[in-house]
């Protein structure tokens, strides 16, 4: 399958100037750039990150790209090219690969990403058959579809937005609305690359992270990395309509969903008061809501009357 | 597991100047380079590319790095940093990850590669748990260990060594000795990065490929990509002692093993007669043997008396 599928892919992948030599050789060549490179990788696995019985594999392919694009956006970088690795169940391998790639190519087209290369393997296939196949009994033929994508981009002038750069007194902003992504948004998130690019022009972002595992959990990670805490304006947290809809089914409150649901893929950024004011005056196409202020006392806090009350981060940790 | 394992990894990974920001943020930052970047990715999967019941996982980790390093060498590039993605069986996930990383770090240390980042998932874990885990019955808990590595390097001045650049009249050279790697060499191949670097200084390499799927199969791929054929000097093919040893068990000839066994990870290069003579006069630390001459008639050929006889490529195709 690999040779004919690669021929199909070469036909589908647009030539973009960032890739000098793409699919078909032992490695790809990316055009020289005067900027530092920014790179990330994230995998999605059937039964862990999605359910093939339930989710459209075109959406799953799109999501695998989008979550990586979101990571680049959260660092203040620009995404340019991708390497795509698929581990495919033997049954319907070509059909599955085609559907997944359809979604990958949709995201690539939308964000001008070149597919520079990748790898395809089929479980129990003969990727390198001289290791033998005498071990038939050990693995289920239902070994899960796994999609691993590496994104490579560049970092414009100025530093990367680390998690560790937040300063006491910073205003903390969150993009869009959060909670309830499980109702469908999690499959087609909008990576905030354009917002990231605009923010980089406008402001000196001290720290940033994208919300993959829950607003409060990722906010807590950012605070912990920076050695600060946050005094939250709880009522300001922008709750997504999906969180309201989900609350009607779940028995939890819309706030709880906004606080702890994962896969919003919105950005949290920490900027100076002055930059926050500057940003607030400009239409960036996506709402940016101030949800709190960084304080010296570590942890997540809300003020109740004149006292601070500690809030527990909740969300979905990896592994 | 991920947080504590990442902390362990950060401690084990050496700081190298090519990585400005490594493990721990949403993406890594690689130092700017004036050269084009060269990138490749290859995965190895239990039951397909190795057998965990039989092979030491430290070796498997080393191999996962080495096969990617070999791809960079085959393009005439220099390897600099790696992103490592592991999909882990739930049982003994931390132990398995530790063993695999041990081999990865050995290769990284040997070839001065920085581990810039990666991803860890455990099958049926809760990488992103809001997709639920209601689908318990679909996948075997024995889902196989999969290791996917992306290598990023740079391409010194001059073009990449494509498969398609061989010219009629070129001398074709192969490094080292081939055949019988299954006896153990396939787990600890020596990527020919140093040889590649020396060849780049000495000669204008027209085309190159590394032997992953068998001497004759990869040679055929190089010829096909270049639109040429090769007249082979069959007796010159450097047969590895392992091919002789394997022939005693297999009932096949040592030549057959040299011709079709995969995973030698030696280089095949196509250079002008003049460059071949220049190279032959210099000790490169690894033998480079001339095995034939490129001809206009496509395919693999040997001369028997005054006639050409066509040879069939054999090896292990992917998928």
From TrEMBL, chains A, B:
InterPro entries in the cross-refs: PurM-like_C_dom (IPR010918), PurM-like_C_sf (IPR036676), PurM-like_N (IPR016188), PurM-like_N_sf (IPR036921), ThiL-like (IPR006283)
This enzyme's EC code(s): 2.7.4.16
Family under the similarity heading: Belongs to the thiamine-monophosphate kinase family.
Residues that coordinate or bind Mg(2+) 3: 26, 71, 210
List of residues binding Mg(2+) 4: 26, 71
UniProt GO MF annotations: ATP binding; magnesium ion binding; thiamine-phosphate kinase activity
Chain positions recorded as Mg(2+) 1 binding sites: 41-42, 119
Source taxon at top rank: Bacteria
Name of this chain's protein: Thiamine-monophosphate kinase
PANTHER family listed in its UniProt record: THIAMINE-MONOPHOSPHATE KINASE
Pfam families in UniProt: AIRS, AIRS_C
Organism lineage string: Bacteria, Pseudomonadati, Planctomycetota, Planctomycetia, Pirellulales
Note: Reaction mechanism of ThiL seems to utilize a direct, inline transfer of the gamma-phosphate of ATP to TMP rather than a phosphorylated enzyme intermediate.
Enzyme class: transferase
Gene coding for it: thiL
Domain (PurM-like N-terminal) ranges: 24-124
GO annotation terms (biological process): thiamine biosynthetic process; thiamine diphosphate biosynthetic process
Domain PurM-like C-terminal stretches: 181-298
Pathway(s) served: Cofactor biosynthesis; thiamine diphosphate biosynthesis; thiamine diphosphate from thiamine phosphate: step 1/1
């Amino acid at each position: 399958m690999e040779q004919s599928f690669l021929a199909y892919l070469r036909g589908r992948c647009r030539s973009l100037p960032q890739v000098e030599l793409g699919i078909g050789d032992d490695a790809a060549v990316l055009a020289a750039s005067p900027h530092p490179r920014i790179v990330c990788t994230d995998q999605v696995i059937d039964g862990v990150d999605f359910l093939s019985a339930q989710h459209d594999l075109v959406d799953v392919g799109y999501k695998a790209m989008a979550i990586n694009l979101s990571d680049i956006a959260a660092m203040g970088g620009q995404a340019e090219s991708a390497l795509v690795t698929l581990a495919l169940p033997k049954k319907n391998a070509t059909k599955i690969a085609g559907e997944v790639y359809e979604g990958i190519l949709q995201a690539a087209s939308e964000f001008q990403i070149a597919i520079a290369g990748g790898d395809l393997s089929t479980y129990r296939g003969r990727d390198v058959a001289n290791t033998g196949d005498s071990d038939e009994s050990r693995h289920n033929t239902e070994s899960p579809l796994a999609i691993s994508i590496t994104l490579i981009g560049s970092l414009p002038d100025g530093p990367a937005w680390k998690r560790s750069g937040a300063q006491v007194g910073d205003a903390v902003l969150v993009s869009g609305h959060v909670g309830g992504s499980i109702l469908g948004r999690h499959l087609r998130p909008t990576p905030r690359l354009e917002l990231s690019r605009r923010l980089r022009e406008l402001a000196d972002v001290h720290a940033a992270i994208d919300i993959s595992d829950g607003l409060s959990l990722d906010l807590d990670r950012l605070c912990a990395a920076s050695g600060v805490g946050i005094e939250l304006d709880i009522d300001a947290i922008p709750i997504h309509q999906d969180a309201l809809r989900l609350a009607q089914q779940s028995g939890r409150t819309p706030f709880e969903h906004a606080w702890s649901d994962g896969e919003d893929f919105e950005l949290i950024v920490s900027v100076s008061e002055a930059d926050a004011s500057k940003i607030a005056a400009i239409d960036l196409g996506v709402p940016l809501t101030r949800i709190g202020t960084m304080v010296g006392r570590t942890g997540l806090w809300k003020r109740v009357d004149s006292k601070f009350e500690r809030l527990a981060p909740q969300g979905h940790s990896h592994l």
